[in-house]
């Protein structure tokens, strides 16, 4: 039985260590079964292709290199179990499970209540964006696993004043930076906290220097790439800009302007992740924690992290900024757990516990029916083009990807349908699926896949000066004859005839 105020209920009285491992095991099963089995589109396809080629740096600027993530994924590639693409996708699934387990542990340490911790863990586990990124290969769940580990270490230090936890915090923070530059936001909060501890003589200069040294050790994979690029280019400032912003994203990272469209979309993103009345517990958790003088140290850091991650993601302008809300969703889940802990101490109604538990898993049902509901009402998702074997409503509104073979089907059909030595111009969303199928399955290696995407960027030898000869000598195709997805010189000078999942390039009449 689950109820508030009763220490003899199965969850409330369960051993917290056993509960942690139970949550971790269930989360692992949850994400393993929802994980995509094969090739994927867009950024996930880029990751799969980079792992296939042991590419730790990438070609889109150092901020998008994520070296620690790729070191781990490349190591997993060599594990001789199952197919390569599924193994790589499982990196995100396993990291997501670790993050969910960490949320449970953090809230359990914070509230001393198993039920509150379970609700917090479920809330994060089934939140749409996090679940989606636990089902496809992406960098965000590994960063989240590291970030939530940092929170646990921070709380352990605050509870015990043992400086060893700060040493570990520094090391894990370095690993976070080597995984994703989102770690720099949390590092800012930790840095201020360390300075405060120094000023209050709660740690000494020696301790601070050790923290810095272990942070440098953790961040070594990223530091190596930075030093390597400075040595190769001689451009110190340019390399640092690449490390901070990547190639061409400085304006998005530093953006301070908001449009009505961005505000509306961001509100919809948040609503999609917390589509039940349990979101009200977030505000209850913030209010209760703010009034709890015993939790002052951790309270200030949690509130600062929540605001930093929210503000950063909310005014970001890149198309897939919804993923950058994930650390904020972790904080929301923690505060929801804290709100549940408060209700446990204030209320003793069993029905309230059942309602909270039911609401925590309700998003699964909502995501199941959401695509058909949105589609039937003719609501556009703002997707500018369709791709064969990718139903936009199911693909983007349902977070699980088990059994999804759309990218594999598209690439296999495209490669098998073209003539010998054909050329296919593909955009960054579709090119990697074609390349992965061609290289992993050794299928149609005579076909040239052309893209101007940074990781491939082989369009130079198939550009506007070469196209006339190409058209006369070889069959030429594009995936999408639309601006932004097809080279402009093709759109301006040629017509396109639908040919299965591709479009054949033909002379204008």
Key features of this structure:
single chain, 509 residues, mainly alpha, 2 domains, 5-stranded mixed β-sheet, 23 helices, globular, disordered N terminus
The radius of gyration over CA amounts to 25 Å
Number of spatially distinct domains = 2
**Which geometry do the CA atoms define?**
globular
N-to-C order of helices and strands: HHHHHHHHHHHHHHHHHHHHEHEHEHEE
Rounded average pLDDT: 92
Total strands: the figure is 5
Distance between the termini: 75 Å
Helix amount? 55-70%
Low-confidence residue ranges: 1-8
Which percent range describes the beta-strand content?
under 5%
If you had to describe this structure to a student in words, what would you say it looks like?
The protein is mainly alpha-helical and 509 residues long. The chain folds into two domains: 16-372, no CATH class; 406-507, no CATH class. Helix content is 63%, strand content 4%. It has 23 helices and five strands. It has a five-stranded mixed beta sheet with strand order 2-1-3-5-4. Helix 3 packs across helix 4 (84-111) and helix 5 packs antiparallel against helix 17. It is globular, with a radius of gyration of 25 Å. The N and C termini lie far apart (75 Å).
Q: Layout of SSEs?
A:
Blueprint: H1 16-34, H2 42-52, H3 67-77, H4 84-111, H5 114-126, H6 128-135, H7 140-160, H8 164-179, H9 183-199, H10 205-218, H11 220-233, H12 236-245, H13 250-253, H14 260-273, H15 280-291, H16 296-314, H17 326-346, H18 350-376, H19 392-397, H20 406-417, E1 423-425, H21 431-440, E2 448-450, H22 467-473, E3 476-478, H23 488-493, E4 494-499, E5 502-507
Parallel strand pairs: 1-2, 1-3
Antiparallel strand pairs: 3-5, 4-5
